[in-house]
């Protein structure tokens, strides 16, 4: 059959899988083999049959398609394995995941695990101590970490609230020239905000903008909110100091207002209140 006809089959199958009509898609997929079209692994991957079946939680059928490809001489590559591993990680079938991973390493060549494979593994981890094993396996097979992997590690350690590991990952990203993009800063800003470290979060936000990065809308809204609250808190503290000065020493309000900012000029305070009350005001500020 001509190549053009094969691609026509692929277009129909992919359209059906995208629409969720897997029954019809599978009939066409099997018919394509029966008519001796003999698609290669790239075409089979483009069909997205395995991915679509897994998405619909029809994992046994997806595994059957996977094994059928091998039996028909259409050997899977890393993209085929990754389709299965992605969904196996999501449903927690880690025994099958590592079985597939071992198979990939054994076959090598076009089946060798890549950074996408290991990113799926990292996303499935539940404990910080599990990270080292995955990274060691990456190192053994010579798979280098990219900026997506670093950002994923940064997010994992932030979610686990492992401050030491967050700092270490950030420094490694700086040292290796990877990451530190908008995603990296977004993770740091939201993590610091959740920890109540508003000043640090705003510092990273300022650094992000100074580098010309456009923040995500949710991050922009969050930082605007933090700045507004910070300003209101400063105004509230300033009013408290003003009340203390008026109530305790009778300093006229017009004298206070005459100063640009009581927070940055304590000379008038020193002249009108004793040292103990000045220290009290400083603590409030």
Automatic annotation (TrEMBL):
Q: What InterPro entries does the record tag this protein with?
A: PPR_rpt, TPR-like_helical_dom_sf
What residue range is the signal peptide? 1-19
Q: Repeat among the record's keywords?
A: yes
- Report the coiled-coil segments: none
Residue windows of the PPR repeats:
5-39, 42-76, 77-107, 181-215
Ordered alphabetically, the record's keywords are: Repeat, Signal
Homology family: Belongs to the PPR family. P subfamily.
The entry's protein name is: Pentatricopeptide repeat-containing family protein
Q: Please tell me the species this chain comes from.
A: Populus alba (White poplar)
């Amino acid at each position: 059959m001509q190549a053009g006809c094969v691609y026509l089959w692929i277009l129909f199958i992919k359209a059906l899988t995208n629409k969720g009509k897997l029954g019809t898609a599978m009939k066409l997929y099997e018919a394509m083999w029966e008519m001796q079209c003999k698609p290669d692994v790239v075409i089979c991957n483009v069909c997205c049959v395995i991915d679509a079946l897994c998405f619909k939680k029809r994992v046994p059928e997806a595994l059957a398609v996977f094994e059928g490809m091998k039996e028909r001489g259409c050997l899977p590559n890393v993209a085929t394995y990754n389709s299965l591993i992605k969904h196996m990680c999501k449903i927690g079938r880690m025994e099958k995941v590592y079985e597939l991973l071992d198979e990939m390493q054994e076959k090598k060549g076009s089946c060798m695990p890549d950074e996408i494979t290991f990113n799926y593994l990292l996303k499935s981890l539940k404990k910080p101590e599990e990270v080292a094993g995955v990274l060691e396996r990456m190192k053994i097979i010579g798979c280098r970490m990219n900026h997506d992997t670093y950002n994923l590690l940064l997010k994992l350690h932030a979610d686990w609230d492992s401050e030491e590991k967050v700092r270490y990952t950030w420094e490694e990203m700086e040292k290796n020239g990877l990451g530190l993009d908008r995603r990296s800063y977004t993770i740091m800003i939201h993590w610091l905000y959740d920890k109540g470290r508003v000043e640090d979060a705003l510092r990273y936000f300022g650094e992000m903008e100074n580098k010309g990065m456009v923040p995500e809308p949710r991050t922009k809204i969050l930082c605007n909110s933090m700045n507004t609250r910070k300003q209101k808190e400063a105004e509230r503290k300033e009013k408290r100091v003003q009340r203390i000065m008026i109530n305790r020493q009778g300093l006229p309000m017009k004298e206070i207002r005459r100063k640009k900012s009581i927070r940055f000029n304590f000379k008038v305070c020193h002249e009108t209140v004793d040292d103990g009350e000045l220290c009290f005001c400083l603590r409030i500020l």
